[in-house]
């Protein structure tokens, strides 16, 4: 404790709980708006664009966000990010009550929220380094990875059960309340600040120059750069299919909200199970091997099973496999970065990490929707010999083309993972780079 404020692992747990509750509300709103947008447009591109509008500002603004996170109080940054996301939901709520909500309003709200989310990850991840001792970071990262898994389990069920009674407006009201809960949790927690390096403070240049620091740091270390380029490629490949999951399920089931909600719930259950196992286990000793092995399982087993699935059972099992190993991959990755980058540099470096690693996904999301609507779906609904041969694998009719996308890009993601393992600077990153301890903190 520090005065009346929570700190350490207890403080982290309070913040974690606030984020879980907040994302539960956000997940309920996202589920309701997904159904609304599909009924309005009937196009995979429209749904993919929502994800793109949220994701692209997050990636594009990450370098500046990282520089500011290292300059500002990280707790205040997280509060500002939550507040902005809440305001985006309030704006959509008002437009919906007035009866004028349109799909482009959702795009705009997603972009506004995404812009402030650019600050959330570097502030949150860097705060873990300061709040949690090195021996406990893997468990903390496991909990951090579960932040999105738990809401994914309950948000579809809650939204599906409540929307008939309280409508989308009621769902959004709950969402707004959960944002306030998350902000309240942050207000009662002490988040240590790293002690500034005197030499760095004296030579700190403009914000623009400072924003480029993270890139220079990563580019000077082949192991970190190689790891990020691997994530860039994998995120690029898997986002082609991931962005069309909802339209694929809706197309193959006649717009069944129950199937969509169940599969999304299984994604959450898988992530929760994986996170709990990792938290109890404490994590692997060879983190890089665990990271690559987890992604390989996710791509070869989970992604492909979702693509070839013809019903709820196949999709649910694929969703569970895909998400259950992700906490091991993400927890291992976070732990590697937190150990290899000094605490007072992590805001800028982690922001550059987000931009390089995630920009592929931001590009692929809208392209995936276009490929689904204009290439893969027409291919699998046609009568060509190729369509007939592929139908033996993924079936035919609406949604089959998007199923083929899961198979194709899953195989490509597995190939990229094998290539990363064969590259020594990535495979042996834990021994080639020294560890740094977050020994000194400020106020």
Kindly summarize this structure in a few lines.
With 443 residues, the protein is mainly alpha-helical. The chain has 21 helices and no strands.
Describe the protein's architecture and organization.
The chain is mainly alpha-helical and 443 residues long. The protein has one domain (8-191, 210-432): Up-down Bundle (Growth Hormone, Chain: A), CATH 1.20.1250. 82% of the residues lie in helices and 0% in strands. Helix 4 packs antiparallel against helix 5 (103-131), helix 11 (222-242) packs antiparallel against helix 19 and helix 13 packs parallel to helix 15 (312-324). The longest helix is centred in the middle third of the chain and has 39 residues, at 149-187. The two termini are 14 Å apart.
């Amino acid at each position: 404790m520090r005065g009346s404020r929570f700190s350490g692992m207890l403080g982290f747990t309070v913040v974690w709980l606030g984020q879980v509750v907040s994302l539960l509300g956000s997940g309920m709103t996202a589920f309701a708006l997904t159904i609304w947008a599909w009924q309005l447009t009937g196009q995979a591109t429209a749904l993919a664009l929502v994800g793109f509008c949220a994701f692209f500002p997050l990636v594009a603004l990450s370098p500046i966000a990282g520089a500011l996170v290292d300059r500002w109080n990280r707790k205040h940054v997280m509060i500002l990010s939550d507040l902005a996301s809440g305001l985006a939901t309030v704006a959509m709520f008002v437009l919906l009550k007035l009866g004028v909500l349109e799909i482009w309003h959702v795009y705009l709200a997603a972009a506004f929220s995404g812009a402030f989310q650019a600050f959330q990850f570097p502030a949150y991840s860097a705060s873990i380094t300061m709040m949690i001792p090195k021996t406990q970071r893997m468990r903390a990262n496991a909990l951090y990875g579960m932040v999105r898994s738990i809401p994914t389990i309950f948000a579809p069920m809650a939204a599906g059960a409540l929307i008939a009674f309280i409508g989308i407006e009621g769902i959004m009201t709950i969402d707004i309340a959960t944002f306030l809960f998350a902000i309240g949790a942050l207000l009662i927690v002490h988040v240590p600040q790293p002690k500034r390096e005197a030499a760095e403070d004296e030579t700190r240049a403009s914000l623009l120059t400072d924003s480029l620091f993270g890139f220079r740091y990563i580019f000077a270390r082949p192991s970190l750069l190689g790891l990020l380029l691997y994530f860039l490629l994998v995120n690029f490949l898997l986002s082609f299919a991931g962005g069309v999951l909802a339209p694929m399920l809706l197309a193959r089931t006649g717009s069944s909200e129950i199937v969509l909600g169940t599969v999304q719930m299984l994604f959450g259950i898988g992530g929760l199970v994986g996170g709990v196992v990792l938290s109890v286990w404490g994590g692997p000793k060879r983190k890089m091997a665990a990271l690559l092995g987890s992604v390989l399982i996710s791509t070869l087993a989970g992604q492909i099973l979702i693509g070839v699935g013809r019903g709820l059972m196949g999709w649910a099992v694929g969703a569970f496999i895909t998400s259950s190993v992700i906490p091991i991959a993400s927890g291992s990755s976070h732990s590697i970065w937190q150990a290899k980058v000094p605490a007072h540099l992590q805001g800028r470096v982690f922001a550059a990490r987000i931009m390089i690693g995630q920009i592929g996904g931001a590009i692929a999301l809208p392209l995936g929707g276009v490929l689904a609507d204009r290439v893969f779906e027409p291919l699998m609904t046609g009568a060509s010999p190729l369509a007939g041969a592929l139908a033996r694998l993924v079936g035919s009719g609406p949604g089959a083309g998007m199923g083929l996308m899961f198979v194709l890009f899953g195989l490509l993601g597995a190939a990229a993972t094998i290539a990363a393992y064969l590259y020594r600077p990535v495979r042996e990153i834990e021994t080639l780079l020294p560890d740094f301890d977050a020994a000194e903190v400020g106020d």
